Amino acid sequence: MQERYIATVDLGTSKLALCVAKVVGENVQIIYYKERPSDGIRYNCVYNPKKAAAPLRAAIAEAEEELQIKILQVVVGLPRYNVHQETASARIERSEPSSLIEDAEIAALKSIALDTYPLSDGSNEVIYGAVPQSFSTEDFIGSEDDVVGTPSDSLAGNFKIFVGRKRAVRNIDIMLNDAGVALAQEIFTPTSTGEAVLKDDEMANGVALVEMGAGVTSLSIYHGGIIRYYASIPFGGKSITTDIRLECAFDNHLAENIKLAFGACLPDKLQSLSDKVLQINDEENGTYEHLSVKYLSEIITARCREIIQAILFLIQQSGFADRLRCGIVLTGGGANLPNLTNLIKEESGYSVRVGFPIGRKFSSDGCPGIGEADAAASIGMILEASSDTTLNCIIEAARPAVAVQQPVEVEPDANGQGNLFGRTETEPEPKNKIKRIPTGGKKKERPVKPPRTETDKPTGFKVFWDKLGSAIKEGFDGTLGMIYDDIDTKKQ
After folding, report:
1. What global pTM score does this model have?
2. 388-445 pLDDT, tens digit each
3. Which phi and psi angles does 4 have, rounded to 5°?
4. Alpha-helical runs (H) found in 98-156
5. Residue 342 CA to its chain's centroid (Å)
6. How many other β-carbons are positioned within 10 Å of the β-carbon of residue 256?
7. Could you say which of 2.60.40.740, 3.40.50.80, 3.30.1490.110, 3.40.50.300 is the CATH number of the domain covering 84-166?
8. Is the CB of residue 436 less than 8 Å from the CB of residue 465?
9. CB atoms closer than 10 angstroms to residue 156
């Protein structure tokens, strides 16, 4: 069998992931997977195509050099935010009622539903994807497998259609043209990620797939083996980082590093770790500050609880809250936050597990991180794109070039971090370099903050520090890995 290659790009708010797979028949082998910081993307949507093209161009060049191939096309994931679902239906009268219904007729019925669906704002909206919900003949109503192979005078189908913004798709086209690569296929990732991380019995008996990225947290509910409901909110891991930055007066890079190294939910369950204190030194200005691990956990837990409550509200709105026999599966980069699954259990009462890509659906060799929850979207796109036997991303696409328009910066939301449960925050535009204001040459010591009660709100304190370095004085064994009493910051 002829081998072919599929390259996918997961456009995230904080990272861009490029994945390459070699496909021979039904065998899918992941041969490359790397992440790098993204730019020009907010809430999972490309708002500045020129900025977004730079890291993509670098990622493709690095993969080509390592794999010794030329990537001419890529499969791209569509935005997960600003997407709403609609219901569409279609019906056909069959010319030969005694003949058996075939797969081609199912595909034709889906095309009719998509082509005839009246978008409320056709100039600004576009259909991202469609999922069949049920099919019916004169005799019964069932799934696609039920009706294929049966005779009938007519065939009708109901579909769930996902509608998004046309500008978001157009900005992806502009970004790809700027990066010098063609578009092979666009995939609405919530429908493909489920195939990568969910088990068949989970999708059949009812499960809520929560994908927590940096800028967007999405909810996909499966029941009867089919996605039945989708919704998203503009909050994720970056919102947690922003809370740490605003409360502790860090720059964004330092806040993110502290979250990744020492962040956790549920401070009361940290045991002895809650007594640990981080000391962050500013050698240039001769100052240092203290931050207790428990206080850091309280900041993180407050935002995570808001995100969870919003997702639980959407689950109630879906009408499937009492039918999720397999509970919640958490995936995406946010799933790596320690104790987050325990917090979801406490808030929801559902069983919760972290969704990793299911290894039996693909093979990999020497690709660090491919089995982590962060890679779920990339694996889902690879699996879905591999079903197209004509797709080969190292062969030039036989399609006309996309008309390039001038890049237009578009903010998905006017108020930055959005407004959830009456709490409004505005996030500043990212800058290339954060300048710090000197605080003097003498060292000053701030006492450790006392733990807050549930009714207290964080009250930011004004300090200006340089980037986080590393100095280890005391280690420990625990679920968080390693934590240290003191951290010295050295200017890079």
Report:
1. 0.78
2. 999 999 987 654 444 444 544 545 554 444 444 444 444 444 443 333 333 334 433 4
3. -140, 165
4. 103-116, 144-147
5. 20
6. 22
7. 3.30.1490.110
8. yes
9. 18
